[in-house]
Design a protein that fits this description.
The protein is of the alpha+beta class. 28% of the residues lie in helices and 25% in strands. It has 2 domains: 1-50 and 130-189 and 300-393, FAD/NAD(P)-binding domain (3-Layer(bba) Sandwich), CATH 3.50.50.60; 190-299. Pfam families: DAO.
Length: 393
């Protein structure tokens, strides 16, 4: 029997990898999805509150991207995963008087219908999806290799070789905050750890809310008189060494192992913080903590996502040494890393952006459709090259 060679291997089975795999399966059955965790959606994506709501502000390119993605993604969930979306609307509440003044100034630039409600602004398009079940449903018919740690990728005889044993024609990296496999200095990710909690409460919440945290519409819980409510999320960046803790990006199944003392302390602190913030929105009675999930959002330096091929910086500079003098080189003339693609940097809006971006990436791979310069990785290379020039001065 000849050695198996895949058409596509996707590394990372969070929300980005799940949507990319779901799009690719329309074009091939020779596809493999790999993740270090024991199931899909077991990393940061499974910890997401997965709230879908508009980005408020004056018109700019990032807001335009979120608006397009929200429209696309909301329709995708309603049409393809209707049982996994709670389409109840979101009330956005200003944090203080200054925030309220900003909200008022944004009114001429609203992209979605809204009405004033309680102490805020209600957007009917707001919703929430079940993060784990979305990833599970999207990948149910896709071949998977789970609990598999990828430590090495290299190009051999025109194919990508993974851990010296898995071969593929095309490799797509959707690994979120862990970018150890990308040896390109310009490709930079900031890991922002967040925590979501699920609680039981006798309080009934009819819609989603967002103030300094997000509070979900309540759902009846089993046969009890209590309601299930999600609250998220905190924002933590760690300067300390988090090796060996649940907050280590290299730890597999970090939401399904017994937390160490250091991790437990952080989780308890964030739980108290989230409960206080949630009670500032709605008084929650008879609260019982059901579970805690943590995860690292992957954010780029300019907050835009990263999509498409990667520039091979070493080969490009060897070919055009004057790049280091600040010379502009057209994208089509640079050396790219062949048959390697990324979808990353979706930040805290992974379940809004990923359906929209995955469709674009697969259209780019299959039909060579151009990716917007605002989100393709080329922009990061050009900025990095300019900084190299400044360092030489």
């Amino acid at each position: 029997m000849s050695e198996k060679i895949y058409d596509y291997v996707v590394l990372g089975a969070g929300v980005a990898g799940s949507f990319v795999s779901n799009e690719l399966k329309k074009h091939t059955k020779n596809l493999l999805l790999i993740d270090r965790n024991s199931d899909v959606g077991f990393g940061a994506s499974g910890a997401a509150g997965a709230f879908l709501s508009p980005l408020l502000g004056k018109d700019n390119k990032f807001k335009s991207l979120i608006t397009k993605a929200l429209k696309y993604s909301t329709n995708f969930y309603k049409e393809n995963l209707p049982s996994l979306i709670s389409h109840c609307g979101t009330c956005r509440i200003p944090k203080n008087d200054e925030d309220r003044q900003k909200f008022e100034s944004y009114k001429p630039f609203m992209d979605f219908d809204y009405e004033e409600l309680e102490d805020g602004y209600f957007f009917p398009i707001g919703s929430q999806v079940d993060s784990y079940e979305v990833c599970k449903s999207l990948t149910k018919d896709i071949k998977k290799l789970l609990s598999y740690e990828v430590t090495k990728i290299e190009k051999v005889d025109g194919l990508w070789l993974i851990n010296d044993e898995i071969k593929t024609k095309n490799l797509i990296l959707t690994t979120g905050a862990n970018i150890d496999l990308i040896d390109e200095e310009y490709f930079n990710i900031r890991a922002v750890w967040g925590q979501r909690i699920n609680i039981l409460s006798s309080t009934k919440v009819d819609i989603n809310y967002h103030k300094e945290c997000s509070l979900s519409k309540s759902k009846p819980f089993d046969n009890t008189s209590k309601n299930l409510i999600s609250i998220g999320a905190t924002h933590n960046r760690f300067e300390d060494d988090m090796s060996g803790t649940c907050y280590d990006l290299k730890t597999a199944d970090f939401n399904h192992i017994e937390p160490d003392e250091k991790s437990l302390k952080l989780m308890n602190e964030d739980t108290s913080k989230l409960l206080n913030l949630a009670n500032d929105i709605k008084k929650l009675n008879d609260v019982e903590l059901l579970d805690v999930k943590i995860g690292a959002r992957a954010s780029s330096v300019d907050y835009f996502p990263m999509l498409g091929k990667l520039v091979d910086s070493k080969k490009s500079i060897e070919k055009f040494p004057h790049i280091l003098n600040g010379s502009f080189i057209k994208k089509e003339n640079l050396e790219m890393i062949d048959n390697l693609y990324v979808l990353n940097g979706v930040g805290g809006r992974g379940f809004v952006l990923s359906p929209y971006l995955a469709r674009q990436l697969v259209e780019h791979i299959i039909n060579k459709k151009e990716i917007s310069e605002d989100i393709e990785t080329y922009r990061l290379f050009t900025r990095w090259a300019k900084r190299l020039k400044n360092k030489k001065k």
